[in-house]
C-alpha cells in the first residue's frame, strides 16, 4: 500500500499541494482527478520521487521515499512502471526494442530471456504483430499500448499513468482504459492514473481522489461519485454535457418514483 501523510509542496512560496493525507488501494486502479492546475501531475511526480515535497511522508509498504537515499530510490523505482503522457518511445528503436529497454537496463536475465519477456508483454497488449515496426509506423493508440508493454516489462508492483488517454479518440481511449484495468487485476498491480476524463473514471476507477487547487476535496469509489455532496466535485463531474444529461435523467427517474409512491 502507498500511504501519503500531510504532504505539502511549495514552489517559490506558492502552495501547490496543501496538506494531503490519503492512501492508494493495493491491486486497484486509483485515479487522481481534477481540473488543469489542480496539482495532479505535481502529486504524481512527488509519489515517484521526481519532485521532493516541502514536507510530509510518502510511504511504500511503510518505507518513506522522502527519506531515502538516491540508491534506495533507484531500487524502489525498479518496482515502478511508468506510462507518460506522450508515450515517450524511442524513435530510433523498434517497438520490441523499446519494450526491451528497461530489461536491458535493469534485468539480470540473459538476452534470450529478456526478449521472451518483451514478447510476452507485447502479446499481452495485443501488439505482437508490430514488434519490428518503429514508432513512426504505428498509430497513437498502438504507441500507448507499446508504452504500457514497456511499463510492465519489469513486472512492477506499481503502475503510474499520466493522462494515458491524451490525444486519443473515444474508442481507443476505452481500449486503453480496459487494458490498464485488466493488467491491474491480472498482475495485482497498484495502479495510479492521473486523468481529467470522467469516462475513464466511471469505466475503471476503483478508488478516486479529487484534487482542487492542491487540496484533497473528496475521495471514494465511482459508485459514490455521482451522488457525492461535495459542491466542487459536482462542478467538475457535471461539467461535460454527457454527465449533465445523466444527472438530469437521474433526477427525472427519482421524481417519477416519488410521484408513483405518493399515488400508490
From TrEMBL:
Record's protein name: Putative ribonucleotide transport ATP-binding protein mkl
Domain of life: Bacteria
Residue ranges of domain ABC transporter in the record: 2-238
SMART domains: AAA
PROSITE patterns on file: ABC_TRANSPORTER_1 (PS00211), ABC_TRANSPORTER_2 (PS50893)
GO molecular function: ATP binding; ATP hydrolysis activity
Coiled coil: none
UniProt keywords, alphabetically: ATP-binding, Nucleotide-binding, Transport
Amino acid at each position: 500500500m502507498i500511504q501519503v501523510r500531510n504532504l505539502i509542496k511549495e514552489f517559490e512560496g506558492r502552495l501547490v499541494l496543501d496538506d494531503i493525507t490519503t492512501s492508494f488501494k493495493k491491486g486497484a486502479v486509483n485515479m487522481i482527478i481534477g481540473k488543469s492546475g489542480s496539482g495532479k501531475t505535481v502529486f504524481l511526480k512527488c509519489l515517484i520521487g521526481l519532485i521532493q515535497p516541502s514536507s510530509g511522508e510518502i510511504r511504500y509498504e511503510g518505507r518513506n521515499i522522502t527519506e531515502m537515499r538516491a540508491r534506495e530510490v533507484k531500487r524502489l523505482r525498479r518496482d515502478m512502471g511508468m506510462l507518460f503522457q506522450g508515450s515517450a518511445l524511442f524513435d530510433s528503436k523498434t517497438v520490441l526494442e523499446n519494450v526491451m529497454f528497461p530489461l536491458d537496463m535493469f534485468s539480470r536475465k540473459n538476452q534470450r530471456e529478456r526478449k521472451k519477456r518483451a514478447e510476452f508483454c507485447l502479446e499481452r497488449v495485443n501488439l505482437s504483430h508490430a514488434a519490428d515496426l518503429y514508432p513512426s509506423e504505428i498509430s497513437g493508440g498502438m504507441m500507448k499500448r507499446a508504452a504500457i508493454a514497456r511499463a510492465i516489462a519489469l513486472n512492477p508492483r506499481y503502475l503510474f499513468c499520466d493522462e494515458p488517454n491524451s490525444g486519443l479518440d473515444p474508442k481507443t481511449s476505452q481500449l486503453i482504459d480496459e487494458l490498464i484495468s485488466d493488467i491491474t487485476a491480472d498482475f495485482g498491480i497498484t495502479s495510479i492514473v492521473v486523468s481529467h476524463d470522467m469516462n475513464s473514471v466511471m469505466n475503471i476507477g476503483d478508488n478516486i481522489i479529487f484534487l482542487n487547487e492542491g487540496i484533497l476535496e473528496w475521495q471514494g469509489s465511482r459508485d459514490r461519485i455521482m451522488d457525492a455532496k461535495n459542491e466542487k466535485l459536482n462542478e467538475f463531474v457535471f461539467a461535460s454535457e454527457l454527465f449533465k444529461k445523466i444527472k438530469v435523467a437521474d433526477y427525472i427517474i427519482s421524481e417519477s418514483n416519488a410521484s408513483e409512491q405518493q399515488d400508490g
